Structure formats: C-alpha cells, structure tokens
Amino acid sequence: MGLIGGADLWRIHRAIQSLAMSGSGSRRSSIRCRANRAPAGIPTAFIRLTGCPLRCRYCDTEYAFHGGRQMPIADILVEIEKFGARYVCVTGGEPLAQPNCLNLLSRLADSGFRVSLETSGALDISDVDDRVTIVMDIKTPASGELDRNRWENLERLKPEDQIKFVVCDRQDYEWARGVLSEHDLTRRVSVLFSPAWGQGIDRPLAEWILEDRLEVRFQMQLHKILWGETPGH
What is the pLDDT of residues 73-85, one digit of tens each? Predict the structure, then answer.
C-alpha cells in the first residue's frame, strides 16, 4: 500500500477545466468538465498533488505547493469511485515529484479509469504507465523555468499524448513556434497553445495562430473565466 503525500480530498466542485490532469498525492479531488481536449466536455475527476520543484512566474496554483495530508492510494481510489466519473486527471503541483505517483496512475488504470497526467516536463516520464495519456508542458522563456525542460522526454511521448505551451508574450510565441518546427511536433502529438492567465494576450495569441496557420489547439482556461481564482475549480 503506497501513501500519497499531501493528499487532501476536498468537497466536490463542478467546473470547466481547460487541461488539467490529476495525480496521486493530491491536495484534493474534484469533478470538472473538460473543455480543451478530446473528449471535450466529459466530466472528469481531478486529483491535485501537493508540491512542485518549479516556480513558474505565471503559476496559478501556488496553493498546491504546501499543505494537504497523506492518504493511502486505496483510500484515494475509494473517493474517486464516489464521483462516478469515467475519466480521472492527475495534476499538481508536479505530480511526478511524488514517488508513489507512478503507482497511483497504474492503480487508477487497473481500476478501469481513463487516466491522464499533467506534468511540467521537467521530470522523467519514461516510467509512466502506457495506458496513461500524458499532457506535458514545454516551458517558455517567460516562465522563468526554460532550463528545466527535459528535452529527452519528447522521444518518450505517444501519439495520443499532448504538449502544451503557456505563452506570455510575442517572444514566447515566436520561441514556441520555433520549437514546433524544429521538433516537428504537430506530426507527432497534439499541441496546445495557452495564453498565460492575466497577461492580456488571449486575443493576440489566437490571431497569431490564425495568421501563421499553425496546426495547434488554442486553449483557454475556462474555469478561470467562469470562477476566477477560487481554488477547487
């Protein structure tokens, strides 16, 4: 039996989440509807893990850095079953920073859930269960964590996995577009371009994508639009 550090299951929330994934050792779990990845709009149970070794300048979940409580994986599975959702997303923080996250992901998949993992891309993904869909960030210059990108992870992604760029400004966009071309990413996985929250770049980013005819998905944090900064949505 593995313990997940800082796993605190809070009350159930209903929200629309653009692309978060749950993991083991989370601060809380909740029900949300996916709005930015196939299958869009499907209710999904989220498990948020406490702790993250990165400090991105645009981070909107700093409350996940600390707190929560340890829970056995078996107890987490029991709580997730109560939500009645087929899809489960593991997020953070950085879920892979917790040693038992890999075990949790496999246990969720063993239980018949459609599991996805949202990760920063700074830690090794090679041991993630193949049944898990990985949504991996590539950190842009404005994140302040550019040097943390683990580029070898790109070779470990499956066709059904996704890459996400959080874009803060035009410089970030041009850099991300260069990475897109250099690594031929759109032929390998689905790619998301997401405007950093509160930077006033939502419309410009959408227009740049259209002007350059990029084959990427434009992602908005709909839960932020609907519920603002309230934790749990």
Answer: 999 999 999 988 8
Which residue spans within the chain are E strands per DSSP? Answer: 3-4, 14-17, 26-34, 43-49, 71-72, 87-91, 114-119, 133-137, 162-167, 190-195, 217-218
DSSP state of 227: H
Are 167 and 201 in contact, with CB atoms under 8 Å apart?
Answer: yes
Which of 47, 18, 41 lies closest to 223, judged by CA? Answer: 18
Our CA angle for 84, 86, 87, nearest 5°, is 120
Q: Helix 170-182 crosses helix 202-212 at what angle (to 10 degrees)?
A: 40
| Omega of the bond leading into 84 within 30 degrees of 0 (cis) | no
Q: Which three-class secondary structure state does DSSP give residue 153?
A: helix
* Tens digit of each residue's pLDDT (9 = 90 or more) over 21-67: 233 334 445 444 444 344 556 788 889 888 898 898 888 777 778 77
Q: Which of 97, 100, 99 is nearest to 108 (CA)?
A: 100
- Cβ(4)–Cβ(104) below 8 Å: yes
CATH number corresponding to 3-227: 3.20.20.70
pTM, 2 dp: 0.83
Exposed, middle or buried: residue 194 (CB in 10 Å: 0-12, 13-18, 19+)?
buried
For the packed helices 101-110 and 73-83, what is the interaxial angle rounded to 10 degrees? 50
